[in-house]
Amino acid sequence: MTLNEYTEALEKCMLSQLGFFSEFYVSEERIKQLIVEKNWPELDRELSEIQKCAEKIEKAEAERSKIYQAMKIYCGGEPIESFYAFVSRYCPEKSESLTHLYRQLKVSVIKVKTLTMRIDAYLGTVTSAVKKILDEAFPMRKGTIYDSKGLNRTVSSPPLVLDRQL
Description:
By secondary structure, the chain is mainly alpha-helical. The chain is 73% helix and 2% strand. It has a two-stranded antiparallel sheet with strand order 1-2.
């Protein structure tokens, strides 16, 4: 392959990866909404869809990395050279396009991480609230569980009973 062919392949791969990240973000927004709506059956379906999208992202990232490493070998680039420095040195005609795509990928990753942290914070708040409600409703509950013979049984963490309608 020539450098132009590598550059075209890298650009195409980055564009497809951006599309996958957009799909992932939309799916994660839908998951957030389904959690708030407490639509558990639809949530299960959406979780399986987002898993497929994550696999696409993983494959695209592996392909992007493979193309980039092949480009570096082809050009004899230094192993510690940053993406921006490499592209500006060896691909000046496509430098602007590739650096723009790379920045967009970074922003997409940050958006997905932020949304994931928001979902995590929401679930943590809900879990904490339910735990406090249960502690207030059953103050004498000490986490003791009994087996079928009526003997005390220890558990690694206290059981949590959650009404799906809460």
